[in-house]
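User: I'll paste a sequence; please echo it back and then give the predicted structure.

Assistant: Echoing your sequence first, then the prediction.
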Amino acid sequence: MFKVGDKVVYPMHGAGIIEAIEEREILGKKKMYYIMRLPLGDMKVMIPTDNVEEIGLREIISRDEVKKVLEVLKTPKTKMSSNWNRRYRANMQKIKSGNIYEVAEVVRNLQIRDIEKGLSTGERKMLSNAKQILISELVLADNMTEEEAEAMIEDLFE
């Protein structure tokens, strides 16, 4: 159970802060919801408290783990399928996992592929989404601005 003020990650959406826990009636059913604010894009999301495990909601990484994420970004890319469809599905699975290290892998692999061969429109969009998810967690884990987090990632690939 999370509480107001907790910094959490919502897979596929990124990191945010629980601002409230409220009971709401939706489609005639009353349920408790976490009201989470995602700082990037200033979006609010309602997450049913009874679905947390299923959704994969988790606490953000610690400041020490930020260094490990950067190490993942620095390592050489892992072997990816040359088949666009398989590669896309494998990357989507990693992003959906909510595991920051897997999201970092997707960012690294797609960033390197973009430099080497260029990306399709679909993979470029995926790279952008994965980067936003990664940045949102780094911002909250290490008390930095969105711009600082983005610059830190970009610097690794120059």
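The CA atoms of residues 32 and 50 lie 8 Å apart. Strands lie at 7-10, 14-26, 29-38, 43-48, 58-59.
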